[in-house]
Amino acid sequence: MMDTEQATLKTQTESEVQDLYDAVVIGAGSGGLTVAVGLSTLGKSVALIEANDIGGDCTNVGCIPSKSLLHHSAKHLETGSSSREVLSTVRDKRNQLRDTEQHEFGEMDGIDLIFGRAKLSSATTVEITANNDSQLTKTISASNIIIATGARPRPIPIDGLPAERYVTNETFFEQTELPKNLAILGGGPIGLEMAVASRALGTSVTVLEAASDLLPMLPDKAGVAVRNSLEAQGITIRTGVTAKRYDDASRTLYVGPIDGQESGSVQDVDAVLVAVGRIPNSAGLGLETAGVETERGFITTDRKGRTNVSSVWAIGDVTPRSQTTHGANAWGRRVIKAIAFPYMPTSSDPIVPSAIFTRPEVATIGEHPEEITDDINRLTLDLSTIDRAYTDEVAHGVLIVDVRRLSGKVLAVTIVGPRAGELIGVASLAMTNDIPLHKWYPVVWAYPTYSGAFGKIVDMHMSETLTNLKRESRRWVGGVTRRWRS
Amino acid sequence: MMDTEQATLKTQTESEVQDLYDAVVIGAGSGGLTVAVGLSTLGKSVALIEANDIGGDCTNVGCIPSKSLLHHSAKHLETGSSSREVLSTVRDKRNQLRDTEQHEFGEMDGIDLIFGRAKLSSATTVEITANNDSQLTKTISASNIIIATGARPRPIPIDGLPAERYVTNETFFEQTELPKNLAILGGGPIGLEMAVASRALGTSVTVLEAASDLLPMLPDKAGVAVRNSLEAQGITIRTGVTAKRYDDASRTLYVGPIDGQESGSVQDVDAVLVAVGRIPNSAGLGLETAGVETERGFITTDRKGRTNVSSVWAIGDVTPRSQTTHGANAWGRRVIKAIAFPYMPTSSDPIVPSAIFTRPEVATIGEHPEEITDDINRLTLDLSTIDRAYTDEVAHGVLIVDVRRLSGKVLAVTIVGPRAGELIGVASLAMTNDIPLHKWYPVVWAYPTYSGAFGKIVDMHMSETLTNLKRESRRWVGGVTRRWRS
């Protein structure tokens, strides 16, 4: 994806590259850009090194093209555009944003944007090799090195599947048109979003999820609501299976349990989108040379974002701490603070929501306890019962709030429903500021909105707590005792 | 709108009507229902009297049919349904909900639902006259009388306009089909929502707003963003004028400034939707007999919702305190608390958001100061600049936050943009819990969402405050001094 303009920029910048920076940021995805801009705004000299396209996964093969495709796939019913036209529009929009970003960050005072591959030659030096000319190598030093190289799709070999039928999010948006029949490996954010967009554009879609339920990390009812919504759109969902092999002649994908034999097949599969997780881009960075520790490929960091080597930091998908753009940015902000204001205390860990922009959206924050003990109240509201869902003809959705009894501390919130990605912001603000659920009681929610569902959840909590104060206290004491013991 | 089923219910219930209740609630709109259900849940005996349809304006001629029409008007581009079909669907959905509510509340233990007209004969007695039979009259007593009779469209005489061309929200949804050309008097919630829905269904729409700008109570940029959005949908907006007279032969509506001469006209007007405010339903209730004070027709209440007569309470549109369903409910909850737990302290006044469910939505909470003094920071973000607006092709929108300098107290928030009605919930929770803007800083917003705009506003606030601490302090001192002096 390296083009001439970038190569030119590299050469132009080359002469300006200094020998010593306050910070070298490796990777110009959203996390790296956040750190580079933040530090340079605070007066630090910054070199920002990017091996491919500015904007990273988010701009190029992630958030931006996927949300754009989702938007156009919804509009397609009005416009009647073909998937060929829609994909072309999505690429145009993506390229336009990338150009804007490149222009904006390439010209930014205090940041030297360098296109090339970076490798640590020590804890404070980085060797840069130009992509287009392996001869062009320069070594720069920095007081701080921030690694923000992201991750890439985990490859899954599928016997018999020709390369041109094997698609990931890195190639999905480059397709000229969508396949007529698409199998999707993995029911995570990428898999589900592309399922919805592709289906809306006329593709037959089968999602294969290896776990026994969709979204197994969420409470049961969330997975059920998502499954019902997606099936209502004509998407086939098969859980407990993964791809075993492909027969090109009959275009058949044979499937089976992850640890078992072939148990079935999907017919007429034109392409397989593989979206079964991501692996960190930590190889080839010279981490061993610099002494930076990793765990299963991920660069481990402390609560400030610092690695075991004090001059080296890491944020975003290359760490185990976050797998989202906003997570990378949140950790980027912590690194900025730690570098620029080293004597300020470290604030508590950010509480990072996550969202899937399917129709309906899915969003979650906090950690749902695996077991609902006596001291926890799980409040569940069928979102289809609220008035706005009635006027909007929304048949499936759920709001789940796990709260500590009596204290009202909000532990986790999951929403499946329209605008869930926005609604989770309410929970994010409340949980970050430690506002217990009873303090949500006097909040007035505009009617008729989906946010009004929070009001109903709070009413449930209040009436349960007030009418069962004795039982609640007993349960709470029981819970506390158990936590002490364990 | 009184039908046989209701008349029957009235007669059936008659024999069961007691002589003395803990509370008589007059009006079974959403506010009245909230109070009736709340009090009966707490063990109080309740009579609920309704002169027309259960659910009041919200269910019958307000929130429910308007949101349903907006939904179907958006879908119409896919389905190709005519306005005749859509209006019929909207009425069906509305009637179905009304039937459900009537069934639910008519059967509720502890509530006697009585259809008829109520009139106070003293501070603790109510005379009920059946709608269908003026002979059937009964007087009941109650320790508390709660008036929740709502409001109705303010009538505006338009010379020459035949009655069948004069439409309000009470008759709008009863139309067989939408007019080809619709003039709308008033650019408030009803006017703008019906403008968007009608336009999407193919009607030519002209909105006439007497004020010089749309939504004059909001900061300028909000009105501009709404105007731009609506005009992009093909809606004509004319400000500073109102209807003067109508010529039926040429179907011309002549318009001019509210205090001036005719200055122009709208051609080919088939119907005029009059939505220029609402007047309280306080006449004929026997308020004078009971000694209940009103002001310009509104029943005035204290911070508990109590009128000047200690046994009489009032909530909702009949009071000057709220003009929304959620506002009526919020005040209804206060009345429940005051009646059921009279010795509990009165909590601070609810901070009530308001929302217009146009496309895009408009939502606001708090009071924007008319003048931005030195101690106030007005933060404004063009919503079309955020990434989700880019992928969703949203061209117009704005987020405006007024915040007290240094303290960071949030004074008011206005949003014009997709999902604004949900996003205002974030501000509602934060303002009700008095969370200053700097405590929004560590909040992580899912990317790419519209709620992420809050993050950008907070960044603007933080960087202004931190980089200009000296100037900020000076301004803040200036502001405090001025507030002391004034």
Descriptive notes:
- The structure is a homodimer of 486-residue chains.
- Chain A is globular, with a radius of gyration of 24 Å.
- In chain A, strand 20 and strand 21 form a beta hairpin.
- The model of chain A is unreliable at 1-13 (pLDDT under 50).
- The longest helix of chain A has 24 residues, at 83-106.
- Chain A has three domains: 4-152 and 279-340, FAD/NAD(P)-binding domain (3-Layer(bba) Sandwich); 163-276, FAD/NAD(P)-binding domain (3-Layer(bba) Sandwich), CATH 3.50.50.60; 360-485, 2-Layer Sandwich (Enolase-like, domain 1), CATH 3.30.390.30.
- Chain A has 486 residues and is of the alpha/beta class.
- Helices cover 35% and strands 24% of the residues of chain A.
- In chain A, helix 2 (30-41) runs parallel beside helix 10, helix 4 (63-79) packs antiparallel against helix 5 and helix 4 (63-79) runs parallel beside helix 7 (189-200).
- Chain A is built from 14 helices and 24 strands.
- In chain A, the strands form six sheets. In chain A, strands 1, 2, 3, 4, 5, 6 and 19 form a seven-stranded mixed sheet that branches. In chain A, strands 8-15-9-10-11 form a five-stranded parallel sheet.
- The interface between A and B is large, with 62 and 62 residues.
